[in-house]
Design a protein that fits this description.
The structure holds two protein chains of two kinds. Chain A is an alpha+beta fold. Chain A has two domains: 2-232, Rossmann fold (3-Layer(aba) Sandwich), CATH 3.40.50.300; 237-349, OB fold (Dihydrolipoamide Acetyltransferase, E2P), CATH 2.40.50. Helix content of chain A is 24%, strand content 35%. Chain A contains eight helices and 20 strands. Chain A has helices at 42-50, 92-102, 107-120, 136-149, 166-183, 194-200, 218-223, 228-233; strands spanning 2-13, 16-27, 31-35, 57-62, 65-66, 77-80, 154-158, 186-191, 203-208, 211-216, 238-244, 249-252, 255-258, 270-275, 280-282, 291-302, 306-313, 316-323, 335-340, 346-349. In chain A, the strands form four sheets. Chain A has a six-stranded mixed sheet with strand order 6-7-8-3-9-10, sandwiched between helices. In chain A, strands 13-12-11-14-20 form a five-stranded antiparallel sheet, with no helix packed on it. In chain A, strand 1 and strand 2 (16-27) form a beta hairpin. Chain B is mainly alpha-helical. Chain B has a single domain, classed as MetI-like fold (Orthogonal Bundle), CATH 1.10.3720. Chain B is globular, with a radius of gyration of 22 Å. The two termini of chain B are 22 Å apart. The chains are: A alpha+beta, B mainly alpha.
């Protein structure tokens, strides 16, 4: 059963439509991320769920109860903000205790619970420190402990890692996921960082212009993007503009590629062929691939584990990520074959809606 | 790390120091003058004058009442403007700055006509409180505004709300403790204004401390100097209290 249900939620500010009939349901214990560029409506959706904003139309239910018009303080929703949300004049301990104090929990029990939660987020030793004596990452851990203290039905995270260093970000996001899974708390996570969304979520909802463009498990969002926007927003992707040809081919630039999936489209339609760089191979490893082109190396950039090669082909420029360990990095100007497995390519029609 | 003070900045520093302290030193010296040599007679006379104490008491009382009134008016206003109506901030700032451009004499005449039909109020010194509240508006507003801008009011209020706190708990337990030093500064500025305001009190015929100071200045030369020194001493004591009070809680628990 859905634990949280947003039904046709719309929010407009004058003529601007921030949310356009969003429907979304979260199963109990599920973590769903709202991912999208700034201004796509993800934060509005979260604020509406928290009660800080009211929808123009539509309903929100939490655990079967309609909360659309309920005050934030009565929703039992735990929230972690971007930054600077800890009460500056209270110690970490007192911050975590705050929600319990509001609920009239007796002092000894409140202290014990707050202490336990601080231990849970690895800050048992910092209970008596003030927010300004804590690093950004520590502050967000305290904020998480504070949100969890009220044993919320739902946890809302509003870009909780965006103000932190890259290293702390990765560490903390793994920890958030671990805690969320072990507590089994239904969570909505708002972020503009696709790597973050893919790594912590059960499902990712990619948003654009107030609508959910696609929702699904991370692997599906990455591997089978439903729209060109999703494809390009998540990771790096090659976009080959083509026309559907006959008998499972597409015409791209001066060349024809054999792609069996093209049979599902009408000949003559304009399409884009999407291929992830890591599924493209160059040089000797091209052998056996269904699609094969002659290419000239434009640039070759060493990225550590992989090397990113830009190639000029008759079908347009193509990027390939090849393992650096193999050796024999192609040099700019070299002419080499490039290819990919037709099964790894995705064809999206520009003329008619997909599926 | 020690910083070298360049000769030119040292000159400026000394010139500034002379500019500030020479008149003070001269006043102090003059206040101690007697017919033969120096003594504390002027101070003795001052402290034994019942008028000194009664006017000081009246002014301190008015200062306290004004501070409470202006804070009760502006703290919720400033909080509300920052939280719910940030677009109104320039308007409120403009309104609060108005007393700077309205001469006190206009203000007092205006107030006298406003309260004309409430004669019992006109005859109590508390009549001055509304006027002083208006005079203190700009100072109190800027102090509170700066304090509120230094904390993320909206996020803090939303965090408190999501944890179940109502608006009063949020204001008193979350926002106000963070504004402690701003409120103290605003309060002390108000006290300083009231202890120094002459025009209105004199025009409406109340014998407040500044009126007494002016009277002494016209009648007793050394007494006026002694009074000046005492007033400055009071002011400095207030400033010191402010500095310590605003520093107190933050230092506690520092690693």
């Amino acid at each position: 059963m859905a634990d949280i249900q947003l039904t046709s939620v719309t929010r407009t500010y004058g003529a601007f439509v921030a949310l356009d009939e969003i429907s979304l349901s979260l199963a109990a214990g599920e973590l769903v991320s709202l991912l999208g560029p700034s201004g796509c409506g993800k934060t509005t959706a979260l604020r509406i769920l928290a009660g800080f904003d009211t929808p123009t139309a539509g309903t929100i239910t939490i655990a079967g109860k309609d909360v659309t018009r309920l005050a934030p303080s009565r929703r039992g929703v735990g929230m972690v903000f971007q930054a600077y949300s800890l009460f500056p004049t209270m110690t970490a301990q007192r911050n975590v205790e705050f929600g319990l104090r509001v609920r009239g929990v007796k002092t000894p029990r409140r202290r014990k619970q707050a202490q336990e939660l601080l231990e849970l987020v690895g800050l048992g030793h910092a209970a008596s420190r003030y927010p300004h004596q804590l690093s950004g990452g520590m502050q967000q851990r305290v904020a998480l402990a504070r949100a969890l203290a009220i044993q919320p039905r739902v946890l809302l995270l509003d870009e909780p890692l965006s103000a932190l260093d890259a290293k702390v970000r990765v560490q903390l996001r793994d920890e958030i996921r671990r805690l969320q899974t072990s507590l089994g708390i239904t969570t909505l996570y708002v972020t503009h960082d696709q790597e973050e969304a893919l790594s912590v979520s059960d499902r990712v909802a990619v948003m654009r212009d107030g609508r959910i463009e696609q929702i699904g498990p991370p692997a599906e969002i990455y591997g089978e993007p439903a729209t060109p926007f999703v494809a390009e927003f998540i990771g790096t992707i090659n976009r080959i503009e083509s026309l559907i040809g006959n008998d499972g081919t597409v015409v791209a630039g001066d060349t024809t590629l054999a792609l069996p999936a093209a049979r599902n489209h009408t000949p003559g339609d304009r399409v884009i062929v999407l291929v992830r760089p890591e599924t493209v191979s160059v040089g000797a490893s091209v052998n056996g691939h269904g699609v094969r082109l002659d290419a000239t190396v434009i640039t070759s950039t060493f990225l550590g584990a992989t090397t990113r090669v830009r190639l000029a082909t008759p079908a347009g420029d193509i990027t390939a990520d090849i393992p650096s360990a193999g050796g024999g990095t192609p040099l700019p100007g070299a002419t080499i074959p490039v290819g990919f497995d037709p099964a790894s390519a995705r064809i999206l029609s520009l003329d008619r809606p997909t599926d | 790390m020690t910083r070298r003070v360049s000769p030119s900045s040292l000159t400026v520093l000394i010139a500034g120091g002379v500019f500030f302290f020479l008149p003070l030193a001269a006043t102090l010296e003059f206040s101690l003058r007697a017919e033969h040599g120096h003594n504390f007679a002027a101070y003795g006379d001052l402290f034994s004058d019942p008028q000194f104490w009664s006017t000081l008491k009246l002014s301190l009382r008015l200062a306290g009442e004004t501070a409470i009134a202006v804070l009760a008016l502006l703290v919720p206003t400033a909080y509300w403007v920052h939280l719910r109506a940030p677009k109104l901030r320039p308007l409120v700032t403009f309104l609060c700055v108005l007393p700077f451009v309205v001469p006190p004499i206009v203000l007092v005449v205006g107030l006298l006509s406003v309260f004309r039909n409430v004669s019992w109020f006109l005859s109590t010194p508390q009549f001055l409180v509304p006027a002083y509240v208006i005079l203190a508006l700009p100072y109190v507003w800027f102090a509170l505004d700066a304090g509120l801008r230094a904390i993320d009011v909206r996020t803090l209020a939303e965090a408190a709300e999501s944890l179940g706190a109502g608006p009063f708990r949020t204001l008193f337990q979350v926002i106000l403790p963070g504004l402690r030093s701003a409120i103290l500064a605003a309060g002390l500025l108000t006290v300083a204004i009231v202890l120094g305001e002459f025009t209105m009190a004199s025009l409406s015929l109340f014998n407040t401390f500044p009126v007494y100071v002016s009277y002494v200045g016209q009648t007793k030369a050394t007494g006026a100097s002694a009074l000046t020194i005492v007033s400055i001493g009071l002011l400095w004591a207030a400033m010191l209290a402010l500095t310590f009070a605003s520093r107190g809680p933050r230092r506690k628990g520092a690693a």
